[in-house]
Amino acid sequence: MDNPRSSMISTSTSLLDLDASLSAPMDLTTLLKILAGKNMVGGRDVVRVLNCSAFHDTHLVCSGDLSYLGGSWSKTVGSAGEVPLQGDFSAEHMIFGVEGADPVRREKLIQLLDIDLEWRMHKVSDGQRRRVQICMGLLHPFKVLLLDEVTVDLDVVARMDLLDFFKEECEQRGATIVYATHIFDGLETWATDLAYIQDGELKRTDKLSELPELQKSSNLLSVVESWLRSETKIDKKRPITQAQIQKTSPFDTSPFRSSRHMAYYR
């Protein structure tokens, strides 16, 4: 996550399908990967999902009952850092390459995410690449879905349509979705439970409908902002005054300051 210090988890339906006993502080991405069975901690009974060991009972993931969707398709390339995975193949090749997918569900997701099957994956934008990634990750029905900031590259319309799809999955199929996010627009009517994690520690968990602060505020974003400002003791920034602008910068006397006497080499 961008800020592992403070993170929020929104859930649709309940957390009764998850059971974890972890004491070490960790960022939210690591926590979700542990719940998804990607990282092992302790013994078989430390992290259990659907009454099974998240890491040891591999049938959870193989059957599609437990699904994780997060991160981005990227790789580290030398000094260039994280570079999106690219290949000269179509979105159709990627999506239809997932075996055992229900054709009706596949078509629904393609329409929902507004995917052009002729997109070439080495030419698409980050948002278009993310749409294909989400579509592939949702092709198989799940019982528990763990989401790590998956809507960050989506526009407003695509994001709200996807949240509606998630809500439908929970209401019609009884699925549980855990969504870790820093984007709170539209979550007031989507999530059923809210968990607030600070420094790897669960600070509070509430039913969204019973959250007292939300009764007094117009949206969830304002509530979360007040929590974060209270935690970090950071007040809203005041307008910069003329006196502050005229203050001498420490770089004015720095030996590394740009100078016309410096020599430049190509």
UniProtKB/TrEMBL annotation:
The keyword Transferase does not apply. GO terms for molecular function: ATP binding. It is found in: Cytoplasm. The keyword Kinase does not apply. GO terms for cellular component: cytoplasm. Gene3D superfamilies: P-loop containing nucleotide triphosphate hydrolases. Residues 4-224 form the ABC transporter domain. Its main location: cytoplasm. InterPro entries: ABC_transporter-like_ATP-bd, ATPase_AAA_core, P-loop_NTPase. Transmembrane segments: none annotated. It comes from the Eukaryota. Keywords: ATP-binding, Cytoplasm, Nucleotide-binding, Transport. Belongs to the ABC transporter superfamily. ABCI family. This is ABC transporter domain-containing protein. It comes from Ilex paraguariensis.
